[in-house]
Amino acid sequence: MFIDMSVNNEAYHHPTPWDTRFESLTLPDMLERTVRRDPAAPFLHFLGRTYSYGDIYADARRFAAGLIASGIKKGDRIGLFLPNVPIYASAYYGAMMAGAIVVNFSPLYSVEELAWQVSDSGTRVLVTVDVPELYGNAAEVLESSELETLVVGSLSEMLPWFKGAALKILKRSQIAKVGWSTATRRWSDILGDADCEFPALNASEDLALLQYTGGTTGRPKGAMLGHDQLSQNAQQIAAINPADDPTKEVFMGALPFFHVFANTALLNHAVAAGASIAMVPRFDAAQVLATIQKYKTTGFPGVPTMFQALLDHPNLSKTDLSSLKVCISGGAPMPGPVHEKFEAVTGVRLVEGYGLTESAGVVSVNPYEGTRKRGTIGQLVAGTQILLLDKEDPTKLAPQGEPGELALLGPQMMRGYWNRPETAADVFATHPGEDGGNKQYLRTGDVAEMDADGFLKIVDRIKDMISVGGFKVFPSVVEDAILKHEAVKEALVIGVPDDYLGEMPRAYVTLEPEGVDVRGDGIKTWLNERIGKHERVDEVVIREELPKTIIGKLDRKALRAEVL
Question: CA torsion, points 515, 521, 523, 526, in degrees to nearest 10?
Protein backbone atom coordinates (compact mmCIF):
# COMPACT_ATOMS: atom_id res chain seq x y z
CA MET A 1 0.00 0.00 0.00
CA PHE A 2 3.02 2.32 0.39
CA ILE A 3 5.79 3.17 -2.06
CA ASP A 4 9.01 1.56 -0.78
CA MET A 5 12.02 3.03 -2.59
CA SER A 6 14.33 0.57 -0.86
CA VAL A 7 13.10 -2.25 -3.13
CA ASN A 8 14.83 -0.56 -6.08
CA ASN A 9 18.08 0.75 -4.61
CA GLU A 10 19.91 0.25 -7.90
CA ALA A 11 17.71 2.94 -9.43
CA TYR A 12 18.12 5.35 -6.48
CA HIS A 13 20.70 7.88 -7.58
CA HIS A 14 21.08 10.16 -4.56
CA PRO A 15 24.37 9.60 -2.69
CA THR A 16 22.67 8.73 0.63
CA PRO A 17 20.54 5.53 0.81
CA TRP A 18 16.79 6.05 0.78
CA ASP A 19 16.32 4.28 4.12
CA THR A 20 18.67 6.66 5.99
CA ARG A 21 17.14 8.08 9.15
CA PHE A 22 18.06 11.51 10.47
CA GLU A 23 18.56 12.91 13.94
CA SER A 24 15.79 14.88 15.57
CA LEU A 25 17.39 18.16 16.65
CA THR A 26 16.22 21.58 17.73
CA LEU A 27 17.39 24.27 15.33
CA PRO A 28 19.43 26.06 18.04
CA ASP A 29 21.20 22.75 18.77
CA MET A 30 21.90 22.27 15.06
CA LEU A 31 23.41 25.76 14.89
CA GLU A 32 25.43 25.24 18.06
CA ARG A 33 27.00 22.04 16.67
CA THR A 34 28.21 23.86 13.60
CA VAL A 35 29.55 26.76 15.68
CA ARG A 36 31.48 24.40 17.95
CA ARG A 37 33.11 22.80 14.93
CA ASP A 38 34.51 26.10 13.67
CA PRO A 39 33.12 29.41 15.01
CA ALA A 40 35.23 31.41 12.56
CA ALA A 41 33.82 29.65 9.48
CA PRO A 42 31.95 32.00 7.13
CA PHE A 43 28.16 31.81 7.30
CA LEU A 44 26.71 34.87 5.51
CA HIS A 45 28.30 37.02 2.83
CA PHE A 46 26.30 40.24 2.53
CA LEU A 47 27.18 42.96 0.02
CA GLY A 48 30.89 42.79 0.77
CA ARG A 49 30.76 41.93 4.48
CA THR A 50 31.16 38.41 5.86
CA TYR A 51 29.55 37.16 9.06
CA SER A 52 30.97 34.04 10.68
CA TYR A 53 28.95 31.33 12.36
CA GLY A 54 30.28 32.63 15.65
CA ASP A 55 29.06 36.17 14.85
CA ILE A 56 25.49 35.08 14.09
CA TYR A 57 25.40 32.66 17.04
CA ALA A 58 26.53 35.36 19.48
CA ASP A 59 23.89 37.83 18.23
CA ALA A 60 21.22 35.12 18.29
CA ARG A 61 21.97 34.37 21.94
CA ARG A 62 21.88 38.06 22.82
CA PHE A 63 18.59 38.51 20.97
CA ALA A 64 17.14 35.53 22.84
CA ALA A 65 18.30 37.04 26.13
CA GLY A 66 16.72 40.37 25.24
CA LEU A 67 13.41 38.71 24.42
CA ILE A 68 13.41 36.82 27.71
CA ALA A 69 14.25 40.01 29.63
CA SER A 70 11.32 41.76 27.91
CA GLY A 71 8.86 39.10 29.05
CA ILE A 72 8.71 36.69 26.13
CA LYS A 73 7.75 33.19 27.27
CA LYS A 74 8.13 29.78 25.70
CA GLY A 75 5.57 29.38 22.92
CA ASP A 76 5.11 33.11 22.26
CA ARG A 77 5.25 34.17 18.60
CA ILE A 78 8.00 36.39 17.19
CA GLY A 79 7.49 37.76 13.67
CA LEU A 80 10.16 38.45 11.05
CA PHE A 81 9.21 41.13 8.52
CA LEU A 82 12.57 41.22 6.77
CA PRO A 83 14.30 40.97 3.39
CA ASN A 84 17.49 38.92 3.10
CA VAL A 85 19.65 40.69 5.69
CA PRO A 86 22.04 39.23 8.29
CA ILE A 87 19.80 39.94 11.29
CA TYR A 88 17.23 37.60 9.77
CA ALA A 89 19.44 34.65 10.79
CA SER A 90 20.20 36.10 14.24
CA ALA A 91 16.52 36.81 14.92
CA TYR A 92 15.36 33.45 13.52
CA TYR A 93 17.62 31.26 15.66
CA GLY A 94 17.57 33.69 18.59
CA ALA A 95 13.78 33.65 18.86
CA MET A 96 13.89 29.86 18.97
CA MET A 97 16.60 29.91 21.64
CA ALA A 98 14.16 31.93 23.75
CA GLY A 99 11.58 29.18 23.25
CA ALA A 100 9.48 31.32 20.93
CA ILE A 101 7.83 30.31 17.66
CA VAL A 102 8.98 32.24 14.59
CA VAL A 103 6.38 33.62 12.18
CA ASN A 104 7.57 34.61 8.71
CA PHE A 105 6.00 37.65 7.04
CA SER A 106 6.53 38.58 3.40
CA PRO A 107 8.18 42.01 2.96
CA LEU A 108 5.65 42.59 0.16
CA TYR A 109 2.65 42.39 2.50
CA SER A 110 0.29 45.34 2.58
CA VAL A 111 -0.68 46.84 5.94
CA GLU A 112 -3.94 44.89 5.88
CA GLU A 113 -2.22 41.56 5.10
CA LEU A 114 0.43 42.18 7.74
CA ALA A 115 -2.15 43.11 10.39
CA TRP A 116 -4.28 40.06 9.63
CA GLN A 117 -1.38 37.63 10.00
CA VAL A 118 -0.17 39.36 13.18
CA SER A 119 -3.65 38.85 14.62
CA ASP A 120 -4.10 35.28 13.40
CA SER A 121 -0.72 34.16 14.74
CA GLY A 122 -0.82 36.20 17.93
CA THR A 123 2.57 37.73 17.18
CA ARG A 124 3.85 39.79 20.12
CA VAL A 125 7.14 41.12 18.70
CA LEU A 126 7.87 41.99 15.06
CA VAL A 127 11.41 42.45 13.73
CA THR A 128 11.95 44.66 10.68
CA VAL A 129 14.59 46.96 9.20
CA ASP A 130 14.74 50.73 8.60
CA VAL A 131 13.75 50.55 4.95
CA PRO A 132 10.90 53.08 4.54
CA GLU A 133 8.40 50.71 2.94
CA LEU A 134 8.88 48.00 5.55
CA TYR A 135 9.10 50.22 8.59
CA GLY A 136 6.14 52.32 7.47
CA ASN A 137 3.82 49.32 7.17
CA ALA A 138 5.08 47.78 10.41
CA ALA A 139 4.61 51.04 12.32
CA GLU A 140 1.00 51.26 11.12
CA VAL A 141 0.33 47.73 12.30
CA LEU A 142 1.92 48.50 15.68
CA GLU A 143 -0.56 51.33 16.14
CA SER A 144 -3.63 49.43 14.98
CA SER A 145 -3.20 45.86 16.25
CA GLU A 146 -2.34 43.84 19.34
CA LEU A 147 1.33 43.79 18.35
CA GLU A 148 3.31 44.87 21.44
CA THR A 149 6.83 45.63 20.23
CA LEU A 150 8.51 46.59 16.98
CA VAL A 151 12.25 45.92 16.75
CA VAL A 152 14.00 47.86 13.96
CA GLY A 153 17.42 46.93 12.61
CA SER A 154 19.74 49.39 10.87
CA LEU A 155 20.58 48.43 7.29
CA SER A 156 23.65 50.68 7.25
CA GLU A 157 25.08 48.92 10.31
CA MET A 158 24.89 45.55 8.53
CA LEU A 159 26.96 46.75 5.57
CA PRO A 160 30.74 47.17 5.29
CA TRP A 161 31.60 50.47 7.02
CA PHE A 162 32.22 52.39 3.78
CA LYS A 163 28.92 51.27 2.23
CA GLY A 164 27.09 52.02 5.46
CA ALA A 165 28.58 55.49 5.62
CA ALA A 166 27.68 56.15 1.97
CA LEU A 167 24.11 55.06 2.62
CA LYS A 168 23.80 57.42 5.57
CA ILE A 169 25.35 60.37 3.74
CA LEU A 170 24.27 60.00 0.12
CA LYS A 171 21.04 58.06 0.27
CA ARG A 172 19.20 59.35 3.31
CA SER A 173 15.86 58.89 1.55
CA GLN A 174 16.45 55.13 1.65
CA ILE A 175 16.57 55.17 5.47
CA ALA A 176 13.28 55.44 7.36
CA LYS A 177 12.82 58.10 10.01
CA VAL A 178 11.95 55.84 12.90
CA GLY A 179 9.83 57.09 15.79
CA TRP A 180 11.67 55.47 18.67
CA SER A 181 9.65 54.70 21.82
CA THR A 182 9.22 52.04 24.47
CA ALA A 183 7.26 50.05 21.88
CA THR A 184 9.63 50.73 18.96
CA ARG A 185 13.15 49.61 19.83
CA ARG A 186 16.50 49.48 18.12
CA TRP A 187 17.86 46.03 17.32
CA SER A 188 21.10 46.94 19.07
CA ASP A 189 19.22 48.02 22.21
CA ILE A 190 17.20 44.84 22.63
CA LEU A 191 20.25 42.58 22.62
CA GLY A 192 20.72 41.27 26.16
CA ASP A 193 23.12 39.30 28.34
CA ALA A 194 23.82 35.99 26.59
CA ASP A 195 24.72 34.34 29.90
CA CYS A 196 21.06 34.18 30.97
CA GLU A 197 19.27 30.85 31.29
CA PHE A 198 17.40 29.71 28.17
CA PRO A 199 14.35 27.43 28.30
CA ALA A 200 14.75 23.72 27.52
CA LEU A 201 13.44 22.68 24.10
CA ASN A 202 12.12 19.32 22.90
CA ALA A 203 12.64 18.77 19.18
CA SER A 204 9.73 16.35 18.78
CA GLU A 205 7.25 18.40 20.80
CA ASP A 206 8.00 22.12 20.45
CA LEU A 207 6.96 24.21 17.48
CA ALA A 208 9.67 26.23 15.74
CA LEU A 209 7.90 28.00 12.90
CA LEU A 210 4.50 29.11 11.64
CA GLN A 211 4.90 29.25 7.88
CA TYR A 212 1.86 30.74 6.20
CA THR A 213 0.76 29.23 2.91
CA GLY A 214 -0.08 31.32 -0.10
CA GLY A 215 -3.53 29.77 0.03
CA THR A 216 -5.48 28.62 -3.03
CA THR A 217 -8.71 30.00 -1.61
CA GLY A 218 -9.49 32.37 1.25
CA ARG A 219 -7.00 33.47 3.88
CA PRO A 220 -3.54 31.88 4.18
CA LYS A 221 -3.10 29.17 6.80
CA GLY A 222 -0.16 28.83 9.19
CA ALA A 223 1.56 25.47 8.75
CA MET A 224 2.87 24.32 12.13
CA LEU A 225 6.45 23.09 11.71
CA GLY A 226 8.34 21.66 14.65
CA HIS A 227 12.07 21.69 15.30
CA ASP A 228 12.23 18.04 14.23
CA GLN A 229 10.48 18.63 10.90
CA LEU A 230 12.77 21.53 9.99
CA SER A 231 16.04 20.02 11.22
CA GLN A 232 15.40 16.67 9.55
CA ASN A 233 14.42 18.23 6.24
CA ALA A 234 17.65 20.27 6.35
CA GLN A 235 19.56 17.01 6.87
CA GLN A 236 17.60 15.33 4.07
CA ILE A 237 18.66 18.12 1.72
CA ALA A 238 22.29 18.01 2.86
CA ALA A 239 22.26 14.26 2.20
CA ILE A 240 21.56 14.66 -1.52
CA ASN A 241 24.71 16.76 -2.05
CA PRO A 242 27.64 14.56 -3.16
CA ALA A 243 30.25 17.19 -2.16
CA ASP A 244 33.36 15.76 -0.48
CA ASP A 245 33.52 18.68 1.97
CA PRO A 246 30.13 20.38 2.45
CA THR A 247 31.70 23.12 4.60
CA LYS A 248 33.33 24.47 1.42
CA GLU A 249 29.98 24.87 -0.35
CA VAL A 250 28.77 28.42 -1.03
CA PHE A 251 25.07 28.78 -1.82
CA MET A 252 23.63 31.64 -3.86
CA GLY A 253 21.08 33.27 -1.55
CA ALA A 254 18.69 34.98 -3.97
CA LEU A 255 15.52 33.28 -2.75
CA PRO A 256 13.84 35.24 0.07
CA PHE A 257 14.51 33.68 3.49
CA PHE A 258 10.91 34.20 4.60
CA HIS A 259 9.78 31.64 1.99
CA VAL A 260 9.81 27.97 3.01
CA PHE A 261 12.00 26.96 0.05
CA ALA A 262 14.81 29.31 1.09
CA ASN A 263 14.21 28.84 4.81
CA THR A 264 15.02 25.15 4.53
CA ALA A 265 17.05 24.74 1.34
CA LEU A 266 19.29 27.74 2.07
CA LEU A 267 19.34 28.78 5.72
CA ASN A 268 18.80 25.55 7.65
CA HIS A 269 20.56 23.50 4.99
CA ALA A 270 23.67 25.70 5.27
CA VAL A 271 23.67 25.29 9.06
CA ALA A 272 23.26 21.51 8.83
CA ALA A 273 26.17 21.29 6.38
CA GLY A 274 28.37 24.07 7.77
CA ALA A 275 28.22 25.81 4.38
CA SER A 276 28.01 29.54 3.65
CA ILE A 277 25.45 31.70 1.83
CA ALA A 278 26.26 34.59 -0.50
CA MET A 279 23.05 36.58 -0.05
CA VAL A 280 21.41 39.51 -1.79
CA PRO A 281 18.56 41.57 -0.27
CA ARG A 282 16.28 40.73 -3.19
CA PHE A 283 16.60 39.12 -6.59
CA ASP A 284 18.32 41.33 -9.15
CA ALA A 285 19.85 39.48 -12.11
CA ALA A 286 22.92 41.73 -12.41
CA GLN A 287 23.63 41.57 -8.68
CA VAL A 288 23.15 37.80 -8.61
CA LEU A 289 25.60 37.29 -11.48
CA ALA A 290 28.16 39.54 -9.78
CA THR A 291 27.70 37.69 -6.49
CA ILE A 292 28.16 34.26 -8.12
CA GLN A 293 31.44 35.41 -9.62
CA LYS A 294 32.74 37.22 -6.53
CA TYR A 295 32.03 34.48 -3.98
CA LYS A 296 32.45 31.52 -6.36
CA THR A 297 29.10 30.06 -5.41
CA THR A 298 28.71 26.32 -5.92
CA GLY A 299 24.93 25.85 -5.70
CA PHE A 300 21.97 28.03 -6.65
CA PRO A 301 18.42 27.16 -5.56
CA GLY A 302 15.89 29.30 -7.39
CA VAL A 303 12.57 29.43 -9.22
CA PRO A 304 12.16 29.15 -13.02
CA THR A 305 11.66 32.88 -13.55
CA MET A 306 15.05 33.58 -11.93
CA PHE A 307 16.84 31.36 -14.43
CA GLN A 308 14.90 32.96 -17.28
CA ALA A 309 15.93 36.41 -15.99
CA LEU A 310 19.59 35.37 -15.97
CA LEU A 311 19.26 34.16 -19.56
CA ASP A 312 17.76 37.52 -20.53
CA HIS A 313 20.52 39.58 -18.90
CA PRO A 314 23.39 40.89 -21.06
CA ASN A 315 25.95 40.23 -18.31
CA LEU A 316 25.42 36.47 -18.41
CA SER A 317 27.96 35.88 -21.17
CA LYS A 318 30.54 38.01 -19.31
CA THR A 319 30.15 36.21 -15.96
CA ASP A 320 32.45 33.42 -14.77
CA LEU A 321 30.09 30.63 -13.71
CA SER A 322 32.76 27.93 -13.49
CA SER A 323 32.33 27.53 -9.72
CA LEU A 324 28.65 26.55 -10.03
CA LYS A 325 28.15 22.80 -9.78
CA VAL A 326 24.37 22.74 -9.85
CA CYS A 327 21.28 24.94 -9.96
CA ILE A 328 18.11 23.63 -8.32
CA SER A 329 14.73 24.80 -9.60
CA GLY A 330 11.60 24.56 -7.47
CA GLY A 331 8.40 26.40 -6.64
CA ALA A 332 6.89 25.94 -10.11
CA PRO A 333 7.28 23.65 -13.13
CA MET A 334 10.42 24.36 -15.15
CA PRO A 335 9.54 25.01 -18.83
CA GLY A 336 11.47 22.60 -21.04
CA PRO A 337 12.84 25.28 -23.41
CA VAL A 338 14.16 27.35 -20.49
CA HIS A 339 15.78 24.25 -18.98
CA GLU A 340 17.52 23.30 -22.21
CA LYS A 341 18.63 26.83 -23.07
CA PHE A 342 20.00 27.54 -19.58
CA GLU A 343 22.18 24.44 -19.61
CA ALA A 344 23.31 25.05 -23.20
CA VAL A 345 24.26 28.69 -22.55
CA THR A 346 25.83 28.33 -19.09
CA GLY A 347 27.12 24.76 -19.06
CA VAL A 348 25.69 24.41 -15.53
CA ARG A 349 23.54 21.43 -14.60
CA LEU A 350 19.98 22.46 -13.72
CA VAL A 351 17.84 19.99 -11.77
CA GLU A 352 14.20 20.26 -10.84
CA GLY A 353 12.77 19.46 -7.41
CA TYR A 354 9.53 19.67 -5.48
CA GLY A 355 8.25 20.62 -2.08
CA LEU A 356 5.58 22.59 -0.32
CA THR A 357 5.08 24.64 2.81
CA GLU A 358 3.43 21.74 4.60
CA SER A 359 6.47 19.50 4.01
CA ALA A 360 8.93 21.97 5.56
CA GLY A 361 10.38 22.65 2.14
CA VAL A 362 11.64 19.69 0.10
CA VAL A 363 10.18 16.31 -0.87
CA SER A 364 12.05 15.26 -4.00
CA VAL A 365 14.73 16.41 -6.40
CA ASN A 366 16.65 15.15 -9.39
CA PRO A 367 20.15 13.91 -8.51
CA TYR A 368 22.95 16.47 -8.67
CA GLU A 369 25.14 13.95 -10.51
CA GLY A 370 24.44 11.01 -12.77
CA THR A 371 20.96 10.06 -13.94
CA ARG A 372 18.28 12.72 -13.97
CA LYS A 373 15.08 13.02 -15.98
CA ARG A 374 13.95 16.33 -17.38
CA GLY A 375 10.30 17.11 -16.85
CA THR A 376 10.24 15.19 -13.57
CA ILE A 377 10.65 16.38 -9.98
CA GLY A 378 13.23 13.68 -9.39
CA GLN A 379 13.42 11.03 -6.69
CA LEU A 380 12.24 11.27 -3.10
CA VAL A 381 14.67 12.54 -0.49
CA ALA A 382 15.67 9.87 2.00
CA GLY A 383 13.03 8.75 4.48
CA THR A 384 10.04 9.94 2.43
CA GLN A 385 7.21 7.68 1.27
CA ILE A 386 4.29 8.40 -1.03
CA LEU A 387 0.87 7.16 -2.04
CA LEU A 388 -1.01 8.04 -5.21
CA LEU A 389 -4.65 8.52 -4.21
CA ASP A 390 -7.75 8.33 -6.34
CA LYS A 391 -8.43 11.82 -7.70
CA GLU A 392 -12.10 11.64 -6.80
CA ASP A 393 -11.93 9.68 -3.52
CA PRO A 394 -8.81 10.11 -1.33
CA THR A 395 -9.82 7.14 0.83
CA LYS A 396 -8.86 4.90 -2.11
CA LEU A 397 -5.63 4.43 -4.04
CA ALA A 398 -5.41 5.48 -7.68
CA PRO A 399 -5.92 2.64 -10.17
CA GLN A 400 -2.68 0.82 -10.99
CA GLY A 401 -0.66 2.69 -13.60
CA GLU A 402 -2.78 5.84 -13.49
CA PRO A 403 -1.87 9.27 -12.08
CA GLY A 404 -3.22 10.08 -8.64
CA GLU A 405 -3.13 12.72 -5.96
CA LEU A 406 0.33 12.74 -4.39
CA ALA A 407 0.20 12.00 -0.64
CA LEU A 408 3.33 12.16 1.51
CA LEU A 409 4.67 10.52 4.65
CA GLY A 410 7.99 11.48 6.18
CA PRO A 411 9.78 13.18 9.08
CA GLN A 412 9.41 16.62 7.44
CA MET A 413 5.60 16.73 7.27
CA MET A 414 3.82 19.48 9.23
CA ARG A 415 1.75 18.86 12.36
CA GLY A 416 -1.30 20.71 11.07
CA TYR A 417 -2.54 24.27 10.61
CA TRP A 418 -2.43 26.89 13.36
CA ASN A 419 -5.83 27.24 15.07
CA ARG A 420 -7.51 25.21 12.33
CA PRO A 421 -8.00 21.63 13.60
CA GLU A 422 -11.06 21.25 11.39
CA THR A 423 -8.85 21.26 8.27
CA ALA A 424 -7.12 17.99 9.25
CA ALA A 425 -9.72 15.87 7.46
CA ASP A 426 -9.08 17.78 4.22
CA VAL A 427 -5.30 17.76 4.35
CA PHE A 428 -4.50 14.31 5.78
CA ALA A 429 -5.56 10.89 4.49
CA THR A 430 -5.36 7.74 6.62
CA HIS A 431 -3.80 4.70 4.95
CA PRO A 432 -1.64 1.74 6.06
CA GLY A 433 2.07 2.50 6.31
CA GLU A 434 5.21 0.37 6.00
CA ASP A 435 4.62 -1.36 9.34
CA GLY A 436 1.00 -2.14 8.53
CA GLY A 437 -0.39 0.39 10.99
CA ASN A 438 -2.45 3.35 9.87
CA LYS A 439 -0.53 6.52 9.03
CA GLN A 440 -1.56 10.08 8.30
CA TYR A 441 -0.42 10.95 4.77
CA LEU A 442 -0.26 14.60 3.77
CA ARG A 443 -2.42 15.30 0.72
CA THR A 444 -0.74 17.72 -1.66
CA GLY A 445 -3.54 18.45 -4.13
CA ASP A 446 -1.02 17.72 -6.91
CA VAL A 447 -1.66 14.95 -9.41
CA ALA A 448 1.46 12.85 -10.00
CA GLU A 449 2.77 9.69 -11.59
CA MET A 450 5.90 7.65 -10.81
CA ASP A 451 7.99 5.65 -13.29
CA ALA A 452 9.74 2.33 -12.70
CA ASP A 453 12.94 4.09 -11.56
CA GLY A 454 11.17 6.10 -8.87
CA PHE A 455 11.16 9.44 -10.72
CA LEU A 456 8.05 11.48 -10.02
CA LYS A 457 6.24 13.74 -12.44
CA ILE A 458 3.60 16.29 -11.46
CA VAL A 459 0.80 16.20 -13.99
CA ASP A 460 -1.25 19.05 -12.52
CA ARG A 461 -3.18 20.31 -9.52
CA ILE A 462 -6.60 18.82 -8.76
CA LYS A 463 -8.15 22.25 -8.32
CA ASP A 464 -6.65 23.47 -11.61
CA MET A 465 -8.05 20.66 -13.74
CA ILE A 466 -10.48 21.88 -16.41
CA SER A 467 -13.64 19.90 -17.09
CA VAL A 468 -14.43 20.03 -20.81
CA GLY A 469 -17.69 18.21 -21.50
CA GLY A 470 -16.84 15.70 -18.82
CA PHE A 471 -13.24 15.22 -19.96
CA LYS A 472 -10.46 16.31 -17.59
CA VAL A 473 -7.84 18.63 -19.06
CA PHE A 474 -4.57 19.30 -17.28
CA PRO A 475 -3.48 22.94 -17.85
CA SER A 476 0.19 21.98 -17.60
CA VAL A 477 -0.12 19.64 -20.59
CA VAL A 478 -1.43 22.49 -22.75
CA GLU A 479 1.19 24.87 -21.32
CA ASP A 480 3.99 22.42 -22.16
CA ALA A 481 2.71 22.22 -25.73
CA ILE A 482 2.39 25.98 -26.28
CA LEU A 483 5.85 26.65 -24.82
CA LYS A 484 7.30 24.71 -27.76
CA HIS A 485 6.26 27.59 -30.03
CA GLU A 486 9.39 29.59 -30.84
CA ALA A 487 7.79 32.94 -30.00
CA VAL A 488 6.23 32.00 -26.64
CA LYS A 489 8.20 32.86 -23.51
CA GLU A 490 5.69 32.17 -20.67
CA ALA A 491 2.26 30.58 -20.60
CA LEU A 492 -0.65 30.01 -18.24
CA VAL A 493 -3.81 28.09 -19.12
CA ILE A 494 -7.07 28.40 -17.19
CA GLY A 495 -10.62 27.20 -17.69
CA VAL A 496 -13.24 29.76 -18.74
CA PRO A 497 -17.01 29.21 -18.65
CA ASP A 498 -18.63 27.76 -21.77
CA ASP A 499 -22.39 27.39 -22.23
CA TYR A 500 -22.13 24.07 -24.06
CA LEU A 501 -19.08 22.29 -22.64
CA GLY A 502 -19.07 23.82 -19.15
CA GLU A 503 -15.46 25.01 -19.47
CA MET A 504 -12.94 25.65 -22.20
CA PRO A 505 -9.17 26.03 -21.89
CA ARG A 506 -7.81 29.51 -22.66
CA ALA A 507 -4.10 30.32 -22.92
CA TYR A 508 -2.40 33.53 -21.80
CA VAL A 509 1.15 34.06 -23.03
CA THR A 510 4.05 36.47 -23.13
CA LEU A 511 6.41 36.53 -26.10
CA GLU A 512 10.16 36.32 -26.50
CA PRO A 513 11.73 39.77 -27.05
CA GLU A 514 13.21 38.62 -30.35
CA GLY A 515 10.13 36.59 -31.26
CA VAL A 516 8.75 36.43 -34.75
CA ASP A 517 5.76 38.59 -35.58
CA VAL A 518 2.81 36.49 -34.41
CA ARG A 519 -0.76 36.98 -33.31
CA GLY A 520 -2.89 35.09 -30.87
CA ASP A 521 -4.96 33.44 -33.62
CA GLY A 522 -1.82 32.15 -35.28
CA ILE A 523 -0.50 30.60 -32.08
CA LYS A 524 -3.96 29.14 -31.38
CA THR A 525 -4.06 27.40 -34.77
CA TRP A 526 -0.50 26.12 -34.32
CA LEU A 527 -1.27 24.82 -30.81
CA ASN A 528 -4.62 23.17 -31.51
CA GLU A 529 -3.06 21.06 -34.27
CA ARG A 530 -0.71 19.55 -31.69
CA ILE A 531 -2.99 18.65 -28.77
CA GLY A 532 -6.09 16.52 -28.19
CA LYS A 533 -9.50 17.71 -29.31
CA HIS A 534 -10.73 18.14 -25.73
CA GLU A 535 -7.59 20.15 -24.88
CA ARG A 536 -7.95 22.71 -27.66
CA VAL A 537 -8.03 26.32 -26.47
CA ASP A 538 -10.74 28.76 -27.42
CA GLU A 539 -8.29 31.66 -27.52
CA VAL A 540 -4.64 32.62 -27.06
CA VAL A 541 -4.29 35.98 -25.35
CA ILE A 542 -0.95 37.78 -25.74
CA ARG A 543 0.02 39.94 -22.78
CA GLU A 544 2.94 42.13 -21.78
CA GLU A 545 3.29 40.18 -18.53
CA LEU A 546 1.63 37.42 -16.53
CA PRO A 547 0.93 37.62 -12.78
CA LYS A 548 3.58 36.18 -10.49
CA THR A 549 3.81 35.34 -6.81
CA ILE A 550 6.18 37.03 -4.38
CA ILE A 551 8.99 34.63 -5.31
CA GLY A 552 8.48 35.01 -9.06
CA LYS A 553 6.34 31.94 -9.69
CA LEU A 554 3.68 32.26 -12.38
CA ASP A 555 0.41 32.71 -10.50
CA ARG A 556 -2.52 30.86 -12.07
CA LYS A 557 -4.74 31.72 -9.10
CA ALA A 558 -4.22 35.46 -9.60
CA LEU A 559 -4.82 35.18 -13.33
CA ARG A 560 -8.02 33.25 -12.75
CA ALA A 561 -9.23 35.86 -10.25
CA GLU A 562 -8.42 38.68 -12.66
CA VAL A 563 -10.06 37.07 -15.68
CA LEU A 564 -13.11 35.49 -14.05
Answer: -140
